[in-house]
Amino acid sequence: MQMTIGLHLSRPSERRSAAPAAPSPVTAIGAEGFTATYPDPSIFDPVTAPEMIAVTRPGFTPAGLATTRTDPVVIMTRLRQPYPDQATLTADQVSLSDFVFSGDTIPGVANASTRAYPKPIACWLTPDLQRTTGASFTARLAVAHAYARAGQPVAAVRFIASDGTTEVDQLVSTMSARQWASGLSAPYFEAAIDLSALAPATLCTLDAIIYPWVGEAFRISTDADAWPSANLCVLKFLNDRTGSYGAAFAYVDAAGGSDGTGAASTTPATAGAAPFRSIAAAASALRGFNLANFGRDEASGGTIRLIEGTHLHANFSACAASTIPVTIEAADPAKMATTVYQDPGSSISGGLPPMVAFRNLTLRKAGGSTVFLDSAATLASLDHLVVMQNVTVDLNGTSAYAAWIYRVGRIFLEDCDMTGANAVFDDFGGTAKHITAVGCTGAGSKNTTFNIVASQVTAASGRVPGSTNLMRGEGQFFSHSHFTLSQDGTRVFDATGRGAIGPRGLAVVGCVIEQAGGDTNCAFGVSADGDVTTAENVLSIANTVVGSRTNWLYQDSGSSRVAKSGWMRFTVNMERNTKTDIFGQNGNLTGNWPAAFNCGHRGNAALLGDKAGNAACGTGAWLGEVAGPGDAYGAIATPLAADWADDQSFGAGGGGMGDYTPGAGSALPCVPAGLAPFPLDMKGRPVADDGSARVGAIQPA
Fold first, then answer.
1. Which of 204, 272, 549, 633 has the most neighbouring CB atoms within 10 Å?
2. Model pLDDT for residues 383-425, shown as the tens digit of each residue
3. Does residue 201 form part of some domain?
4. DSSP assignment, residue 24?
């Protein structure tokens, strides 16, 4: 059996939808924004004869200008009574296909909604505290939003740089993309900030205003976290366009260098002619050189270049890099595999300065339970920062000891390879280790990962990159990544039981979530299975979940109502489950009713229906009470055909890292014209905005 709920709407991103000629069939919107009063609730059919209301709401144009936009919202089904009277319908209440917000207007309808517009969820793809020497500073910001359309999550982003006195800004209204070292692509807004008007040798602040298609503008400096934070906050960068800040180099040759005759210099060739033997001596020389020549008593801005070979770690925290990172990099980037920075086989606690960047080299583990990188950061000292760019982490046949990389504060990983070694980034006794991974392989670590973009996350066991109990449960961002787990009984992606998800939300967009080891547990769990904390602004947009089920925004336990709501759009689930008051057998558990009535859902697929065997929505179905517009459901006996190019999930190949490109025989729904959420998928393929794009994470070849 295959079931499709279809509805064609006009392109709300390009023109306003025409208001219904007849008066609105509803008279009032309920406080939660997903129900309405329908004075004559006769039988109606949202599939073949949909009744719609025209909702006018604020938003922005690609020029960053305020506008209004009118979107159609479908009247879906009559609302039932809470348990134990769930078999009885209310007299005049109906559910809606999408939310109505407090600032929306509907002609002739009283709007009592108290629901706020959803906030954008975003992640910098540029590391904090960079030194820039060119005429411009390039910054990248990835964004997700519930009301994506026209091939973009939001209409525009304005980047604003300030030296404390002068501001310069750049409005960006089209997205860019690149393929990362992981082989995956991800879209972002990119600005090249002109630095000519900003004071040289100055630590500047980069802010951004995000303009959504629908809703209110979001300014990072006022609406996100205060700097520094593992969550979204402003960036800082050093404007060194004139070179007046001053930067020195020191080379290290573990085989032929000398700590007695080594020298630091602003000229790489001069420093290269007199290498040190140890990194610690080179770092100390950089601090002394900076003090003597630039008046700053720290190694910030200095670069240590490692000659090919193996270099043992020693304590160099005395170099005191605390303004911007001191950089350790391969002297020859082409020899990163044989330029090795290695622990000495014994623990060194507090051996790093507060800010360090590693580039184009290999980190190798030699000892067993050995502390390697540690700047003694605490959960309160998030000014500590480690940046790793084009770095390979090599366990070298040793154990995956989670304190090998220990108290380092924030970690920004870009184009790094941690295949088989990502467990060294796991939490260790509540350590301060908060990770953003961009374009990496093996990038998901337990209780430390905060954001993942364009990354391949593979593990045989134990990787659960979701919310974390060490940080706030909102604002996390996961985009255009492939998550694979080969352990039965463990969730591939878990955001359940780890604290409330507040208004800043949780974004999982453009991702493949693949369970290859079994279906005992769900593959994708979001605020489910006994989670009695709130969950707001949760996004599952254009994902593909295979091998096991999705457990989405449950309220099946507890004794009181807990608000849970989100948007699931253009996502393919193997099975989709949502449990509510009926399953908890408690009439108070109506907090997740927006999810149970699939408000905010659109164009999703459940290949096998739900885990209980339902192939259609209805009271008591784990698929929900009523199907969202454009949803398509199969059943265990008659699956909805996806026609994957290479299904390696559990129940198919089982090898993991499959190719979930839909083939010519796919029955997956299409994304309606004008509502494509991104310009491209993780393979870099365009997401057509003409009604021909397929739902899910990957487009046809």
1. 633
2. 999 999 999 999 999 998 999 999 999 999 999 999 888 889 9
3. yes
4. P
